[in-house]
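agent: user wants the structure for 60S ribosomal protein L37a from Balaenoptera musculus. delegating to structure tool.
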Amino acid sequence: MAKCTKTVGIVGKYGTPYYGASLRKMVKKTEISQHAKYTCSFRGKTKMKRQAVGIWHCGSCMKTVAGGAWTYNTTFTAKTGLSSCASTFTTVFRYIPSNAAENTRWR
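agent: tool returned. relaying tokens verbatim.
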């Protein structure tokens, strides 16, 4: 059977009289990025695949992480980087007095 989607690619399933060419071009961009395999940030292998909206699974190290809806990295994490994003969260320390044996109320 002949493949009739040589020029339009993955959006050939929508047909020509429907939706318009501009909308199909936009959908093509998102669908290609959605179905692509990405590089795993843990091992560096190209095995990261999309399971559902925002859920990405690596077939190599079997880790499941949250990411963008259509791409593994969102524009926010691409601009700032994960390390600077993680540094914005502060850790709350508990107050431990200098004479900890006497005053154990704040632990």
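agent: one observation worth passing along. The beta strands are 48-52, 55-58, 64-66.
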